[in-house]
Predict the structure.
Amino acid sequence: MRRLGCFGLMLLAAAFGFLFLVAQDWGGRGPSDRPVNLAVTDGASLSTTANRLEELGAIRSARRFKLYARIFGASAPIKAGEYKLPPHLAAADILKVLQGGKTLQRFVTIPEGMPSIMVRERLQAVAELSGAVTVPPEGSVLPDSYAYDRAMTRAALLTRMQEAMDAYLAQAWENRKPDIAVKTPREALILASIVEKETGKPSERRMVAAVYANRLKRGMLLQADPTVIYPITKGKPLGRRILRSELQAHNGYNTYADTGLPAGPICNPGRASIDAVLDPASSGALYFVADGTGGHAFADTLEQHNANVQKWYALRRARGEM
């Protein structure tokens, strides 16, 4: 009897020891002493993912991870995406992360006024994205910061950017003020792209929009320099002065040669410029010129404008720029 009692105690101790090892292996500190980046592709199995976790040093054994996951883990599937696992994360917590889908988020930023040719270049430069994209239609992308992961394609991210523009333009158009100069959302987008390129000062957007709205209503030439540059560079910086021949060119975009709006947007305008066009300042201004502070001086009459131009020239001469 005494021998049986000792044997039973030994079995009990062994069982407790085994359970302790299992608890440590599943719920204790993981083996990796550094963060681990893990990419889980669409349709990846638990077995494939466990093998990858073992290769990366995040778990001790893929075989035991799969066994414990079936015994102790929830029944939810693991989710595709890119994950950043902290050092020494327990195997049980790794499974929770993969089932919860809390992926590592990266961002690509499209600044206000970026032309579509440069949007494509920016997407192509993101090494983590896959696939290729062509240059999207000008004005179709809403400037913003967009999250992505390694499992995403460039085409999918670009589609999200374009859907964001469609949604915002539709919402803004519904809230437009009455008696504005543009008649359609497309016209609003075109004029917003000009406003975006003409001023980098947020407080001026509605005044610049007012100037162009007043000119459109009167049938005046818009005379916006960025529209002259766009057919030459597709929105990239010109890097030199505009030539007289370029000011006289009839190409659908030159607002010095033809009245009305250009044939299409000249960049991807941001929300603020779209809003400015749909709610311009209440002003009779028809002209504006740089004032030397990063902003502009606005004028209702040509006489006032010419005086502002002379002030600008005097400032440039004082700076040695003329």
Notes: The longest strand covers residues 36-40. The radius of gyration is 31 Å. The mean pLDDT is 89. The beta strands are 36-40, 81-85, 106-110, 144-148, 287-290, 296-299.
